[in-house]
Amino acid sequence: MNWITNYVRPKIRALVAPREDIPDNLWDKCTSCGHMIFHRELEELLRVCPNCGHHMRIGPERRMEVLFDDGAYEKIELPQALADPLKFRDRERYSERLKKARTKTGQQDAIRVGHGHIGSQPAVVAAFDFSFMGGSMGLAVGEGLVTAAREAARRRAALIAVPASGGARMQEGILSLMQMPRSVIAVQMVRDEGLPYIVLLTDPTTGGVSASFAMLGDVQIAEPGAVIGFAGARVIEETIRETLPPGFQRAEYLLEHGMIDMVVPRSELRETMGRLLGHLMNSPAVRGTAAQPVAAATPAEPSKVDIAAEESDQSEAATAGNKEAGKKDKEAERASDG
Ligand SMILES: [Zn+2]
Q1: Cα angle at 329 between 121 and 303, to 5 degrees?
Q2: Fewest CB atoms within 10 Å of the CB: 38, 99, 133, 279?
Q3: By the 8 A CB rule, do 221 and 201 touch?
Q4: Is 71 annotated as a binding residue?
């Protein structure tokens, strides 16, 4: 933390990084229906097709702008992880692939962490960059998740993970697989502090990422149409020798089958997330721990049941239990929804 890292480095990066300023008069094509859209209009629509509603992928910086109040956040610097620990080589050296990805994105690895407010509640967001080697999770991404969890605990903020990943980074072998338990421990650190942990599943969330921290949220939200699963649909079809149902591994299918809590359009994410955090951050579990250091026997974290009950308009998965607290918030919610 000095003027070299804070001032000089970003300046140099800005000079070296690939330029993204595309002229405003360009047209973009929807990757789903082929509809032509004015580039500027598409950006204003948060890269959601006005014709078919397809949610195109967005990078972590844009993601944070979409989520945080007023699009404002503070970037959290991530510690440097060991690069190419296995000196791995397939058709190409891993070190070369890394170098290319870094040149292409102007970033060190596939994750970015920021701190700000969502619905006036403090939050740390850890967002994946799918354009960086398919958002694959290696040592650096694991490090990013642990840093995000620590920062959330230190700042008494909620942790929000936004995966967009093909899974573990195979070039780091078992070390990348170790990021699965490591990220789960990171989530547990946030839980131990009684702070909420929300996952926003985006397209795609697969492999080792979906098999670890990405499915452990107190609330599981997904963007419409996002592919979420472990193995790819083709691999499953070939293995079980059966045709998979339509919409398999899509967000809506998972919602219907009780795997996630909500499917929320991008334009409503900030508001929905803010409302959830409003409930969760003001729950007794969080309030209780804010005043005093956390003892081993902290009351349970804000329960998933509360939220499910509040959001039961969308999800019929709501179950019994803790209705008392739910009822009060529900009334408040109804009032605010008008
Ligand atoms: Zn479209």
Answers
A1: 75
A2: 99
A3: yes
A4: no
Q: Tell me the pLDDT of the chain (338 aa) as tens digits.
A: 566 666 666 666 666 655 555 555 699 999 999 999 999 999 999 999 999 999 999 999 999 999 999 999 999 999 999 999 999 999 999 999 999 999 999 999 999 999 999 999 999 999 999 999 999 999 999 999 999 999 999 999 999 999 999 999 999 999 999 999 999 999 999 999 999 999 999 999 999 999 999 999 999 999 999 999 999 999 999 999 999 999 999 999 999 999 999 999 999 999 999 999 999 998 776 665 544 444 444 444 444 444 444 444 444 433 444 444 444 444 444 444 43
- Rounded to whole angstroms, the Cα distance separating 105 from 25 reads 24
Which residue, among 295, 111, 254, has the nearest Cα to 186 in the 3D structure? 111
Distance 37 CA to ligand 1 centre (A): 9
Q: Tokens standing for 231?
A: 């193995």
Angle between helices 60-67 and 269-281 (to 10 degrees): 60
Residue 107 Cα to ligand 1 midpoint, Å, equals 30
Q: How many whole angstroms from 29 Cα to the centroid of ligand 1?
A: 8
pTM for this one? 0.78
Is 49 marked within a binding site? yes
Closest by alpha carbon to 73, among 114, 107, 113? 114
Cα of 56 from ligand 1 centre, angstroms: 9
d(CA 68, CA 115): 9
| Ligand 1 centre distance from Cα of residue 48 (Å) | 8
Task: Name the token pair of 263.
Answer: 């499917």
> In the chain, what are the domains?
23-56 (no CATH), 58-269 (3.90.226.10)
Ligand 1 centroid–CA 58 distance in Å is: 15
